[in-house]
Amino acid sequence: MQVPTKPIGPPKAKEALASRRNRDNVAGDAAEEPTKRFHIDEVLVPVGNRRTREFPRLVAQAVRLVWSAARRELVLTLALQVVSSLALAVEVLVARRLLSAFLQVGQGGTASGVAVPLVVMTVALAFGSLTSTASSELQRVLGELVTKHATSKVLDVAVAADLLAFETPSFHDRLQRAQMHGSSRPLQMVTGLVSVARGLLSAAGVGAALLFIQPLFLLLIVSAYVPVWFAATRASRVSYKRHVEMTEKDRRRYYLQMVLTRKEEAKEVRSFDLGGFFRSRWDDLYDWRIGQLREIMRTRVKLGIGGSALMSALTAGAVAFLVWLVSSHRISVAGAGAAAGALLLLGGQLQSVASGAAQLFDSSLFIGDFNSFVASMPRMVAHSHGGGGAPPERFRSLRADDVYFTYPSNNAPSLRGASVEIHEGEVIALVGENGSGKTTLAKVLAGLYRPGGGRVLWDGQDTATFDPHLWREKVTVLFQDYVRYLLSAKENIGAGRWERFGDIAGIEEAGGRAGLSELFSSLPQGYDSLLGPEFLGGVDISGGQWQRVALARAFFRDAPFIILDEPTAALDPRAEAELFANIKTLFRGRTTLFISHRFSSVRSADRIYVLSGGRVVEGGTHDELMSLGGLYAELFTLQAEAYLDGGRPVAASE
């Protein structure tokens, strides 16, 4: 008799189940839980307060980042800036001679003196324009190379991170800031670096020319831009602090935006008419962000006005000094004209330096945050690699011994001294109510989580001494919330063991074992068909067909230990019955652990473990557990009576 699942039943059965649940909870509270827990802050390098004196170090880090990403492009860009600056210095010096020649022509002299400086000026202008265009185009490539390099470092840390890190909000905050600023700030940083380099080189060229005219002008105009620099750095620190504080709400806003735009949520958003509700929440969060940006803007404007006022006063002083020199005949008209032009050019270059330096300092604060996240890579690797040893090729026994586990976001443990034993070649089932710890225990056995207490033993060896990556090589896990990759069918299945991606025959065999041969043979491109309608040419398949694709991925991985977490949730009853009837044949020579809420599906298992309150409370075959009259028998009876009462079968999930 098929016994569908439904979490309701006759009053007596429900009362008995509630009584047993209360006893389990009391016993669980009495147990003393080990205090060892995962803390992401112990793995991530902390972010310190940024001070102005740290600016040289932050700039050095930024330069190293650019250098490691695109040294050739950086050298070429800087070389073009040097050439452009030399051309600008030549323009200033030649302008003085050209102006003198024009004055001589006006006083009755010949025009021959104008020809040479005019030709030199024309060549210098053309050369400066050419180098400026080439530099601008090269910066585009440079920016992309730096962005790619920075983003790849963030991805390396994310991949190396312990799975539990993704259960921790602070990790997501740091990850988002690193992602966001790793992809945008390097380009700004490159622009700032180039702007500062170009401005300094050009200012040096113009300043050298100005020294020949009047050295005091150089001192006055350089001093004028010091207040601008201090105002800009202060504004950057304020902006950085506010952006860090905004991270969590920005993540909430991005999440709501994803809910409103993704295919996965589209059905329910429309069914419950949630578009307006989520849109309103998104608007509120965005309005809050804009309010914060307005405050940042007001602060930056106030600081900018103060710096600009001092700059303007010093610049006006330089101009007044020039007027006095002309009126007192201490400088010629040609010299005054050249000095005025040099002042304007130098002012423009120093403005570029101040703007670029402010942009560089602003970016360096976020790059410092990025570098702190990337610097966590060695800790991540050391934490995730455990003892570094390799497990045996196969196991004769795998045992969880008094395992405790608590999620970082929870105070109560999800596992409280759970113990199971699995032998090679067995089919083992985990059953229990929602929240009893089945999936968590499966993840611990798969090496995805480390126990907070107790041990997992592989042929008597403590798995804490294993490299989890090598451990997970021996395990296939098919989760209920499996991933639907928007790739070809071949790539979806081949992802199970990407090292064998070229094994087309193996991929097709895995698809056949999962019952996909007929589906893919009916498609024009067969196993090369793109799955999912989100991209052009993609094929939309049903949930049950997607589950078969995930099952084929598990077959193709061909690991000695298979974990199936609700593997039939999206399959029709006939396909479900067929899978469980043939599970020993399909996974011949493998050890299989599966989780199910449908008790009819677990009857054929070699052994069944029943979890309640994070502990294994019963274990044995179906007949043994039924004769025991414990929790398993109660749950089985509940489902059978619900089915006989005409209840609608419901496949609950943990």
Explained architecture:
With about 650 residues, this protein is an alpha/beta fold. Helix content is about 65%, strand content about 10%. It is built from 22 helices and 10 strands. It has helices spanning about 10-30, 55-105, 110-160, 170-215, 215-225, 225-245, 245-260, 265-270, 275-325, 335-375, 375-385, 440-445, 470, 490-495, 505-515, 515-520, 545-555, 575-580, 585, 600, 620-630, 630-645, and strands at about 395-405, 415-425, 425-430, 455-460, 460, 475-480, 560-565, 590-595, 605-610, 615-620. Strands 6-7-8-3-9-10 form a 6-stranded mixed beta sheet, sandwiched between helices. Helix 5 runs parallel beside helix 10.
Q: Which descriptors apply to this entry?
A:
ABC transporter transmembrane region fold, 654 residues, 3 domains, six-stranded mixed sheet, Rossmann fold, four-stranded antiparallel sheet, alpha/beta, elongated, disordered C terminus
Short description:
Helices cover 63% and strands 9% of the residues. With 654 residues, the chain is an alpha/beta fold. It has 3 domains: 58-381, ABC transporter transmembrane region fold (Up-down Bundle); 395-474 and 559-647, Rossmann fold (3-Layer(aba) Sandwich), CATH 3.40.50.300; 486-558, 3-Layer(aba) Sandwich (Rossmann fold), CATH 3.40.50.
**Percent range for helical residues?**
55-70%
The spatial strand order of the largest sheet comes to 6-7-8-3-9-10
- Content-based structural category: alpha/beta
CATH superfamily of the largest domain: ABC transporter type 1, transmembrane domain
Count of distinct structural domains: 3
Total beta strands: 10
Query: What is the CATH-assigned architecture of the largest domain?
Result: Up-down Bundle
CATH class of the largest domain: Mainly Alpha
CATH topology of the largest domain: ABC transporter transmembrane region fold
Low-pLDDT sequence parts: 1-19, 23-32, 647-654
